[in-house]
């Protein structure tokens, strides 16, 4: 009996642990993983998407999949469980994300370095390049926001924020991941709108403008809330 994607995702996690793969390590190709796990490549592709939305793997267009953290270290699992137990609480989780990112950006504006601004600029370029590819987008979006919040120099804030964001991304895109389709707001025709949503957050960081940062984060929050509503309706 062929393994379902969730089973394969668990096996890939076990493979990461067994091979002692550290953060940033590149996974074998989907073809090689299919051979290692004795399953089909489409099933491996689905399993990779599951791990991407869990925040355990980063998908890079044209490059492959990379470990973002060891599975046993993921705070997102606990947050995800809470949301699974009460799906109607998603708006509370989105509010928490707003508060965490607002504080993160305010602190980044105060404490962030020029090197961290450059990291944010690079993350934005990756985000732009990922539009149209749902797996790459989820990785790039989490990476962009987390990069800016890490510039707050508060590792606890950054870790909790990334876990909350990853859980919301999983919730938001789960239906489209399952279907293998791309929501209308992630199509290549919407590239300008997607950039306009994220660029002001980085610009506020670059200009050390706290008020602009708060406004940009709040605007992103409202747009994400609409996407969550659309996702829930799927």
Automatic annotation (TrEMBL):
Keywords: DNA-binding, Transcription, Transcription regulation
One of the Pfam families matching this protein, by short name: GntR
One Gene Ontology MF term: DNA-binding transcription factor activity
InterPro entries: GntR_C (IPR011711), TF_FadR/GntR_C (IPR008920), Tscrpt_reg_HTH_GntR (IPR000524), WH-like_DNA-bd_sf (IPR036388), WH_DNA-bd_sf (IPR036390)
Every HTH gntR-type domain range: 2-70
PANTHER family: TRANSCRIPTIONAL REGULATOR, GNTR FAMILY, UXU OPERON TRANSCRIPTIONAL REGULATOR
Name of the protein described by the UniProt record: Transcriptional regulator, putative
């Amino acid at each position: 009996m062929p393994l379902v994607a969730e089973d394969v995702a668990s096996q890939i996690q076990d493979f990461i642990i067994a091979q002692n793969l550290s953060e940033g390590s590149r996974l074998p190709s989907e073809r090689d993983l299919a051979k290692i796990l004795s399953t089909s490549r489409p099933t491996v592709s689905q399993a990779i998407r599951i791990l991407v939305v869990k925040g355990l793997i980063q998908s890079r267009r044209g490059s492959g999949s990379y470990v973002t953290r060891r599975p046993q270290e993921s705070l997102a699992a606990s947050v995800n469980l809470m949301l699974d137990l009460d799906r109607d609480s998603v708006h509370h989780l989105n509010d928490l994300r707003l508060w965490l990112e607002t504080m993160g950006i305010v602190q980044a504006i105060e404490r962030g370095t020029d090197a961290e601004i450059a990291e944010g600029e690079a993350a934005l370029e990756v985000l732009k390049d990922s539009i149209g590819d749902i797996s790459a987008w989820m990785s790039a979006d989490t990476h962009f926001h987390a990069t800016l919040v890490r510039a707050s120099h508060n590792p606890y804030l950054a870790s909790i924020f990334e876990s909350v964001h990853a859980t919301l991304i999983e919730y938001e895109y789960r239906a489209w991941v399952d279907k293998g389709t791309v929501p209308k707001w992630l199509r290549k025709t919407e590239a300008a709108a997607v950039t306009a949503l994220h660029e002001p957050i980085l610009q506020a960081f670059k200009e050390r403008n706290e008020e602009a940062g708060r406004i940009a984060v709040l605007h992103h929050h409202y747009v994400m809330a609409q996407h969550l509503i659309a996702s829930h309706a799927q």
